[in-house]
Amino acid sequence: MAKQDWHEFPHASDEFVYAGAALKKNWARLHQGDCEPFPEDKEVQEAWRQYHQGNFEKAYELGLEAGVPGYTVAMKALAIHATYLVDDERAKMKAFQEAMKLGEAAQKDMPDNPNSWYFTAMATGRYGQTISIAKALSEGLAGTIKNCLDKTLELAPDHSEAHTAYGSCHAEIVNKVGPMLAGLTYGASKDKAVEHFEKALAIKSDSAIAKIEYANALMMLFGDKKIDDATRLYNEAAEAESVEAMEKLDQMRAAAELED
Q1: 55: left (phi > 0), else alpha (psi -120 to 50), else beta?
Q2: Other CB atoms within 10 A of residue 111 CB
Q3: What does pTM read for this prediction?
Q4: To which H or E segment does residue 232 belong?
Q5: Torsion angle, CA of 260/241/129/13, rounded to 10 degrees?
Q6: What confidence tens digit (pLDDT) does each residue in 188-211 have?
């Protein structure tokens, strides 16, 4: 595996501790957004503990050491770390490409795990953002993301994060190529973007990431006409309760958006 540059989570790692049986007890809440099944493998359980604490490097390493059962936690740790804690675009690109490779292996070896598909879509989408939406579309990445998200929702219809990702995908395509071409070429539309975000929030009403991405999409698609709705969503995300590291990073991101 390619060597990654790791940055520490900007909060004490003991803020979110799920030692022993606490992990399974809180699993439904921790994974309401991504529908990840509880792992029986003890090493994978520990990898997820490290992930939720924000120890993304350790989570990634433990996930890889566990082999196939640990691919999903390794993928998510790598992609979330790159998204929130890495500024260098080349380093981001390398991380997302590595996560995409893991995703290919996960799809082959764990085809029934929705996150074999979803985390691949997430990494591919973030990779597309690093190379520009226009280039991503020209390379056919939209089709890869769509196929992965379709498979995710086939396996887990209540996958809130997949609905959020689908909403963002529709919004970015419409924003880049315009409503007519988006619909004719990619099947993307403003209405579908809104529909997926609404589904995401119907499933997980306190999802900070869904509210942030929805707010971003509203501004892309409707501009100042929706600024009040976008501001409300940012405020709700900034005030959301965080029970793990990714949620804390989402909360911090929303607060930063409001400051801007």
Answers
A1: beta
A2: 12
A3: 0.93
A4: helix 227-238
A5: 100
A6: 999 999 999 999 999 999 999 999
